[in-house]
Amino acid sequence: MTTHESLAQIASEVSGCRGCALHKTRTNSVPGEGPENAEIMCIGEGPGFNEDQQGRPFVGQAGKFLGELLALAGLQREQVWIGNVVKCRPPNNRDPLPEELSACNLFLERQMAALAPKIIITLGRFSMGKFVPAAKISVVHGQMRKIGDRFVIPMFHPAAALHNPTYLPLIKADFARLPELLEVARKALDASAREELAKAAPSAPQLAEPKPLFEAQKDEAPKQMKLF
Ligand code: URA
Asked: Using CA atoms, how far apart are residues 71 and 116, in angstroms rounded to an integer?
């Protein structure tokens, strides 16, 4: 299956999902969106009112701010893939429950596998909790770490930063460093891909010195040819 086909298949399963109670109150499911070759995947918490109405992630105020943050990194929203840990809106924007997170988890896993992004940016504590459950966002925000075969950068949630002015300069500085971190991730992943290739297809064995064709004759003086 191509990436396009995998993502379309997941989106169609999400729209019919009844894996937790959130399907009863949703207007639309929000599977996520973005280019299939995205190097960066942003994962938020869950759809809010506007996202539920439109079936698209981060289209409200937090989404507008996310666009501004990406611009600080020289990126447009259309260049990154954007999704959430839960695909249906928790009523009144409450925190997602553990059973809702686990009902949606496989969708996110499959999206990550299909996209194979170089960097995952977790937005907020629920998304961070999937990758680094014991971490404190106030300590680890903006720090990139390799988890399996991808890099993860925990960031504050844009909505939290809009509500708490002390987070604003921090989240802006974290996004501004993204180009530098992306370069580090690209180099590291290219190097490990080369290593994997070398392991899978070791270079051809060195050829032995060619033996003289006529071993016995090699030190003999050239024979005289008889001429008739
Ligand atoms: N907040 C989120 O975490 N996700 C959205 O899609 C919108 C707001």
From this structure: 23
> Is the CATH number of domain 3-187 3.40.470.10?
yes
pLDDT band at 80 (very low <50, low <70, confident <90, very high): very high
Ligand 1 pocket test target in 22, 30, 43, 45 with most atoms within 8 Å of CB = 45
Helices and strands (H and E) in the chain: how many: 9, 5
Q: Which residues contact 191 (CB under 8 A, 6 or more apart)?
A: none
Give the number of the atom of ligand 1 that is nearest the alpha carbon of residue 62: 8
- pLDDT, residue 147, reads 95
pTM of the model: 0.87
Selection from 53, 34, 26, 35 nearest residue 44 by Cα: 34
Rounded CA gap, 47 and 87, in Å?
7
Q: Read off the pLDDT of residues 108-129 as tens digits, 9 standing for 90 and up.
A: 999 999 999 999 999 999 999 9
- Nearest-CA neighbor of 39 among 228, 187, 201, 219? 187
Name 80's Cβ contacts closer than 8 Å, sequence gap at least 6: 34, 35, 38, 40, 41, 42, 70
Q: Which amino acid is at 185?
A: A
Task: Tell me, using a 6 A CB cutoff, whether residue 32 lines ligand 1.
Answer: no
Domain boundaries, the chain: 3-187
Distant-in-sequence, close-in-space partners of 157: CB < 8 Å, separation ≥ 6: 44, 45, 62, 123, 124, 125
